[in-house]
Amino acid sequence: MKKMIVLMVSFIFIVTIPVQGATGLSVQDAMNEPNGTDVTLEGYIVGVPTAVDHVQQSDFTSNYALALADDQEETQIDDMIFVKLDSEYRSEYGLADNPDNKGELVQVDGTRNPYFSHEGVENVSSMTWEDDGASDCGDGDASTDGYYDSADGLSGGELKQTLHNLIDDHTELSYSQVWDALRNTDEDPGNSNNVILLYSGNSLSKYENGGYVDEWNREHVWAKSHGDFGTSRGPGTDIHHLRPTDVSVNSARGNLDFDDGGAPFSEAPGTYYDSDSWEPRDDVKGDVARMVFYMAVRYEGDSGELDLEVADYAGTNGPNLGKLDTLKEWHENDPVDAFERNRNDIIFNDYQGNRNPFIDHPEYVEQIW
Questions:
Q1: What's the domain of life for this entry (predicted)?
Q2: Which residues is 105 bridged to in the sheet?
Q3: Which of 106, 117, 142, 181 is the most exposed place for a label (fewest CB within 10 A)?
C-alpha cells in the first residue's frame, strides 16, 4: 500500500509542473524564444510594421500587422515584436481602423516566427485585451495593485471620503510645468507631434502654445474663479482637470457651468453655450464630467485647501460648479475611452502619482451622488 501511494504522488508532481503563466511572456522574452515555438506574450500596441526597418506610429495605413513593445512609448524597432494579423483580428485590433488602440495592452497566442524578416509572431490563435493596472474599458472591475481596496463595499459620503484619502497626497506641479505635462497627457494618438484640443477636437502642434489666437493654452475645466484658486500649486495646476484648448475657445467658455443647450459655438463644432452654461461636443462630455467629479473629491477642504462641490444648478458662484444631473447624464452617455485611460496612467506614473477614480471605476459616480 505504501508503494502505491508513492507512485500516485510521483504522478501528481509530473502533471503539475509549472507552465508559462496566463499573464504571458514579455515582448523581450518572446523575442528570445526560438522560431517555431508556441508562445503567449503581452505587450503594448505601438504601431504598424510595414518593413523590416519601418513601423508607422501615426497615420496608420494598414490593419494587417501590429508592433508590440514592453513600453507604451517605445520607438526603437529592435525592441518591438511584429504580430501578423489574420482577417478575423483586423477589424478589432488593426490600427488603420482603430487608431485609439495604440498604447493598449494585449495578450497574443501564436507561433514565434519572423515577420518582415524581423522577430515576429504568426498563426495567431487568440488575442485579448489586457488590464495594465488602470481601468478595463470602464466596467468598474479594474484596480491598480490594490489602489482601491479600501473603497470596497462603501458608498455615499464614506466612499467619497475614502477616495479623497487615496488621491489627496500627490506631487504638485508648477504652472509652467503644466505645459510639458499636457504635451504628453494629451498627445494626438495619430500624430505624436500634436496635442488634441479638448473642446474643438482639433489636432495642433505641441509647441503652438501661448496666448495668441489659434494657439492652445491651459484650460481649467473646473474654472479657477469657482474657488478663486488661480494658478497656484494644487487645484490651479492639477492636470487631472487641465486640458489643451484653443485660446479663443478657452476665452469663450470662461467660467461657465456645464449644462445642455444654448447657441452653437462655431469654433468648436458640437458645442453650445448661453449666459450661464457650456455644453461641449458629445465625444468629451463624459471626460468633462469625470474631471469635475475628480475635483470635487480631491479638494474637500482639509489641510487648508478649498472644498469644491458639484452643484445641482447652473449659474453657480464660489467653490461650486454645476450642473450635477447633467454631468451624471454625460458621464453615463459618454463612457471612458482609451484616450482617457492612457491619460490617467500617464498622470499617475509620470507626474502626480494619483488617479482619477471615476475613470477607473465609473460606478463610483452613482454610488456617491
A1: Bacteria
A2: 44
A3: 117
- How far is Cα 235 from Cα 168, in angstroms, rounded to an integer? 11
Of the options 2.40.400.10, 2.40.50.200, 1.10.1670.10, 3.40.50.1000, the CATH number for the domain spanning 27-129 = 2.40.50.200
Owner of C-alpha cell 502654445: 209
The span from the CA of 82 to the CA of 57, in Å, is 13
User: Are 357 and 364 within 8 A, CB to CB?
Assistant: yes
Cα→Cα distances 165→107, 160, 360, Å: 34, 9, 16
Which of helix, strand or coil describes residue 67?
strand
Cell match 522560431: residue?
35
Predicted pLDDT of residue 146: 87
Nearest-angstrom CA–CA distance, 255 and 50: 47
Query: Cell 488602440 identifies what position?
Result: 101
Q: Report CA dihedral (82, 87, 91, 97) to the nearest 10 degrees.
A: 60
Q: Are 295 and 310 in contact (CB under 8 A)?
A: no
Cis peptide before 323 (omega within 30 of 0): yes
Residue ranges of alpha helices (H) inside the chain are: 2-15, 27-31, 87-93, 156-167, 175-185, 247-253, 285-298, 324-333, 338-346, 357-360, 364-368
Q: 108 near 121, Cβ under 8 Å? A: yes
Q: Which segments in the chain show pLDDT lower than 70?
A: 1-23, 131-145
Q: What is the pLDDT of residues 88-135, one digit of tens each?
A: 899 899 999 999 999 999 999 999 999 988 999 999 999 998 764 433
Q: By the 8 A CB rule, do 93 and 106 touch?
A: yes
Whole-angstrom Cα distance, residue 253 to residue 278? 6
Q: What is the pLDDT of residue 131?
A: 62
Closest to 199 in 3D by CA, of 109, 255, 283, 320: 283
